[in-house]
Design goal:
174 residues, alpha+beta, NADH Oxidase, four-stranded antiparallel beta sheet, two-stranded antiparallel sheet, 6 strands, 16% strand, globular
């Protein structure tokens, strides 16, 4: 299993003001910006990236990119929703932006496409994901809220994505 998994470095600009703007929040509120900066620092410190190779080439390429924020960090921010839904929502938006920006640094085509297509991984890749603490669940989700899985290298956008029919970008729910 370990031969299928390669840890990847993530070099990313963790500027809270930029991430707030990308997440749709006004960066003028200094208290909110200070909270966002703390969130970004916590989220970034828990961000991990792996290339999970597909030994049989079943997924149409040589593997998948998995990005995940540490389960412990995810749990802390999940509890935040109960205490302050608005701050919990901001943390969720920041985590999503952080994951997508990190993905775009590792798979540059994602930046021009604007999202990371979700493709069902083959069984060997699912087993590797599970060894990293991320379980694949049918019909197209994972056991972790703050995880992203996408083909690596890039193999197409909406035409390969499991979520294309109900895509939040297409339906306006994003």
């Amino acid at each position: 299993m370990s031969g299928l998994i390669e840890k990847l470095p993530v070099a990313l600009d963790y500027d809270a003001t930029k991430l707030c703007a990308a997440a749709g929040f006004d960066g003028q509120d200094q208290e909110l910006l200070a909270f966002a900066a703390t969130c970004v620092q916590e989220l970034a410190s828990g961000l991990k990236a792996w290339r999970v190779k597909d030994p049989a080439g079943e997924g149409g390429g040589d593997g998948f990119l998995l990005l995940a924020i540490a389960a412990e960090t995810e749990a802390i921010f999940s509890e935040m929703f109960a205490r302050s839904p608005s701050r919990g929502y901001l943390a969720q938006a920041l985590a999503t932006r952080l994951l997508t920006r990190a993905a775009a640094t590792l798979v540059p085509e994602l930046a021009s496409h604007g999202c990371a297509p979700l493709v069902a991984p083959p069984m060997a890749v699912r087993e590797a994901l599970a060894s990293l603490g991320v379980k694949w669940m049918e019909p197209g989700s994972m056991s972790r809220a703050w995880a992203l899985l996408t083909p690596m290298p890039y193999r197409g956008g909406c035409e390969v994505c499991l979520l294309a029919v109900d895509c939040p970008r297409k339906t306006g729910r994003l």
